[in-house]
What we know:
The complex is a heterodimer of chains A (112) and B (112).
Chain A: E1 4-7, E2 10-13, E3 19-25, E4 31-38, E5 42-51, E6 54-57, E7 65-66, E8 76-78, E9 87-94, E10 102-103, E11 107-111
Parallel strand pairs in A: 2-11
Antiparallel strand pairs in A: 1-3, 3-8, 4-5, 4-9, 5-6, 7-8, 9-10, 9-11
Chain B: E1 4-7, E2 10-14, E3 19-25, E4 31-37, E5 43-49, E6 52-56, E7 59-64, E8 69-74, E9 83-90, E10 101-102, E11 106-111
Parallel strand pairs in B: 2-11
Antiparallel strand pairs in B: 1-3, 3-8, 4-5, 4-9, 6-7, 7-8, 9-10, 9-11
Amino acid sequence: EAQVTQNPRYLITVTGKKLTVTCSQNMNHEYMSWYRQDPGLGLRQIYYSMNVEVTDKGDVPEGYKVSRKEKRNFPLILESPSPNQTSLYFCASSPTVYGGYTFGSGTRLTVV
Amino acid sequence: KNEVEQSPQNLTAQEGEFITINCSYSVGISALHWLQQHPGGGIVSLFMLSSGKKKHGRLIATINIQEKHSSLHITASHPRDSAVYICAVRGGANNYGQNFVFGPGTRLSVLP
């Protein structure tokens, strides 16, 4: 089944403890991206990747890192999480930047 | 002024009614997407439009590039259509993913 898989679905962590949210797609898509969703602010783009080893910042990249060493994986790294990064995170992929998007199921992160 | 606006913010309809959700944007775009977010949080891409009109089942999406406006129509609405509908626009050809901007969403409730 074609899908975007995010892990974990839920995560509670403490301020400053490095964490990684994984995202993997099995559709050979070139384009992958990360978003966060907050009440009253809606969805906002964090980072995106046009292809392997090609990544760029979205609207809210501060406090996040990404890497794209393989086409299928696009992990989101929080080196030193802070409470303002408590949010619902989505990963998405598409064949190209112009293609239709497939979203992961979301990761609800709480930083205390 | 927000770059992407949607109306109405909330909408309650009776089963069977024809529904229209509107999206207006103020930036130049290469494409517009309609997304559906279910109460459980999952996001599904419904349409990608760069011109004209698309239809999928009971859903119809239109876009008027000159007027910077798009509409999502649902015919013969059903309670399972209850969700948040999000309009998202992507920047022009030279701005591949960075200007993926989301509207605030329209919360639709369809009553049986």
